[in-house]
Amino acid sequence: MYSTLRPLLFRLEPERAHALTLQALRIVGAIRPLQWIMARSYQGPSHPVEAFGLKFKNPVGLAAGYDKDGQAIYGLDTLGFGHIEAGTVTPLPQPGNPHPRVFRLPEDEAVINRMGFPSRGTEFIQFRLNPALRTGIVERFLGIGKRGKPKPRRALSAVLGVNLGKNKATPNEQAVYDYLSLLQNFAPIADYLTINVSSPNTEGLRRLQARDVLEKLLTHLHQQRLIEQKQWEKPVPLLVKLAPDLSAEELDDALEAIVRSGMDGVIATNTTLERPGLRSSHRTEAGGLSGAPLRARSEEVLRHIVQCLDGRLPIVSVGGIMTPEDAKRRLEMGATLVQVYTGLIYRGPGLVKEILQGL
User: N or C: which terminus of the chain has fewer CB atoms within 10 Å of its end residue's CB?
Assistant: First the structure.
């Protein structure tokens, strides 16, 4: 079915096609019979995994960036993912970078984006991910309620992660305050949180990966995480997402900061600024490259991280996973979980089931 639909979607501007896809998934998530039909079609075999103190029904997840504002998590949940990572979320709403900012490279099975964290902001996304919180916030505003345990959101079969990023206008010296506020707001909602310091599309963000800066930031977040865990009486695993463009020395420094600050895992990798052998006419566009050309570098980084960490932390591998064979290879290399995004654009929603059938 997707082989018929894809040429039609590829005639549309990429962001427009993506918005239509999200809207369709949002509708699916709101109608129980459609959820049942989709789940019957796309659920693959179970491959349970435990990581970060959480239980995943399978190791295949949706990478951050696909559902930035948490609009379609219940529709996405019908596609068989073991986890879904919403975001990137910023504290305040921001539009992101000017259009056009997403480019398909079909000849390379790739995408270049320079989105720049477009986000509806914390409050909007809190309501999207857990509408039951709305009543509690209104009650507190009117002075007739108090902060307590959140009402549970509708059940997902997938583990829910939220990817956190600073606002563009926030200088790096004050980035910790953005991440702290996001941690406080999403700790009661998400199953885990990802600290995104590796997007290439927010100026200066990647400088937060430097060892001393990163360790200071993550130490503050770990301390706040301990408070949130006590408040909500639940674990709040923290993961850190790294760039593929770090040198071996920079990667070692970042990993040491992650371990020393008490983080729970690593996600590798984000998109790349490199342009390895591209053929498409869009190859010179600015932004982060994802898809098949990222495969080799992402595997190289995974291999390095596995060796460096030596089992101290679980690793989530993402970047260039386009086929079931790609996913299986990452797991065999030492990744605990994998994530897909661009592969869905080129292979369609059946990719998750195909991966699971191949494990």
Answer: N
Number of independent structural domains in the chain? 1
Pairing verdict, β 60-62 and 83-89: parallel
Q: Domain with 315 in it: what CATH number?
A: 3.20.20.70
Inter-residue contact 341 to 66 (CB < 8 Å): yes
- Least confident range of 31-35, 135-139, 248-252, 352-356: 135-139
* Tokens standing for residue 295: 């495969």
Residue 141 has pLDDT above 60, yes or no: no
Output the pLDDT for position 109: 96
The two beta strands, 315-318 and 265-268, are parallel
What is the structure's pLDDT at 350?
A: 95
Please give the residue range of the domain that contains residue 244: 2-358
Got the DSSP string for 66-99?
Answer: SSTTSSSHHHHGGGT-SEEEEEEE-SS-B--SPS
DSSP H helical ranges for the chain = 2-10, 14-30, 32-42, 73-76, 122-129, 133-141, 175-186, 211-232, 248-260, 295-309, 324-333, 342-347, 351-358
Q: Decide which of 145 and 279 is more confident.
A: 279
Specify whether the CB–CB gap between 186 and 89 falls below 8 A.
yes
Which amino acid does the sequence have at 259?
V
Q: Which residues are designated catalytic?
A: 199
Given a cut of 90, whether residue 262 has pLDDT beyond it is yes
Q: Provide the total of helices (H) and of strands (E) in the chain, helices listed first.
A: 13, 13
Q: Which residue has the tokens 């941690």?
A: 183
